[in-house]
Automatic annotation (TrEMBL):
Record's keyword terms, sorted: Cell membrane, Membrane, Transmembrane, Transmembrane helix
PANTHER family with a match to the protein in the record: SURFEIT LOCUS PROTEIN, SURFEIT LOCUS PROTEIN 1
Membrane topology reported for the UniProt record: Multi-pass membrane protein
Name of the protein in question: SURF1-like protein
Location of the protein in the cell: Cell membrane; Membrane
Membrane-crossing segments per the record: 209-229
């Protein structure tokens, strides 16, 4: 075997190892998803509770709190309302309207009041339902702050943003906000019917297991190809030796000696 063949074989072995690692990574993601699904099921079944009893004094909504039902009472601050752009619900593009609810203790929580489907090519909602005046009580689902890597989509700019992020909103709105937000299940007085609701969580294993099988299959395919072409190479070498000019000469010398 020449150097080129050895280099090719090593490359195939490296490729197979990478495929195996990617398959193992998908299985790891599957385990994470199953654990997250279990937390979600537990939170969905938990009884409603005041927000401070759920998240504690730190005021941070973490993964362990997602979809937990919280109850808050306060007054909307419509002057600091933010329109969320580039949102999509059930494959329908539109906007979400986020309004801070100021609680009795002075702390505030971002409330996603609902979804407004985009009409035609509008860049902003044509009409935003007014917030209720006076005291409001909301029962809703907690969600952690949305994050987009190194983008600044969570910082409101001219009353609009792309991500709902408590700390980023707090810097601009000047409020002591919880790190997270709330989607409305029930509101007293009732939420405006113009708002569309949100689907519940996806509680399934996702595609990770099948992705893992695909990566393991690719690894086996690479190794199988290497074995096949190795055998072809060996057969080719043997055929070359059998048909070389040295073989007849050696047979002729052996006959002469007899």
């Amino acid at each position: 075997m020449n150097v080129r063949w050895i280099a090719t074989a090593l490359a195939v072995l490296v490729l197979a190892a990478v495929c195996v690692q990617l398959g193992r990574w998908q299985l790891h993601r599957l385990d994470e998803r199953k654990a997250r699904n279990e937390v979600t099921r537990t939170n969905l079944a938990a009884p409603p509770a005041p927000i401070d009893q759920i998240v504690g004094p730190q005021g941070v909504v973490g993964d362990q709190h997602a979809w937990r039902t919280a109850v808050v009472s306060g007054r909307y601050d419509a002057s600091k309302q933010v329109v969320m752009r580039y949102r999509n619900v059930n494959d329908s593009p539109g906007f979400e309207i986020v309004t801070p609810l100021v609680l009795a203790d002075g702390k505030a929580v971002l409330v996603d009041r609902g979804f407004l489907a985009r009409q035609g090519g509008e860049l902003a909602p044509g009409h935003i339902p007014a917030v209720p005046t006076g005291e409001v009580t909301i029962t809703g689902r907690l969600q952690r702050s949305e994050r987009g890597g190194h983008t600044n989509g969570g910082t409101p700019d001219d009353g609009t943003a792309r991500l709902i992020n408590g700390p980023d909103f707090a810097k601009v709105l000047g409020l002591n906000l919880y790190d997270g937000y709330l989607t409305i299940d029930k509101q007293e007085p009732a939420n405006d019917p113009a708002f569309g609701g949100f689907p519940g969580p996806e509680i399934d294993d996702g595609p990770h297991f099948f992705y893992a099988l695909q990566w393991f299959f690719f690894a086996l395919l690479a190794l199988g190809g290497l074995v096949y072409f190795s055998r072809q190479e060996v057969r080719g070498d043997n055929s070359s030796r059998a048909g070389s000019p040295e073989a007849p000469k050696a047979e002729a010398r052996a006959g002469a000696a007899d």
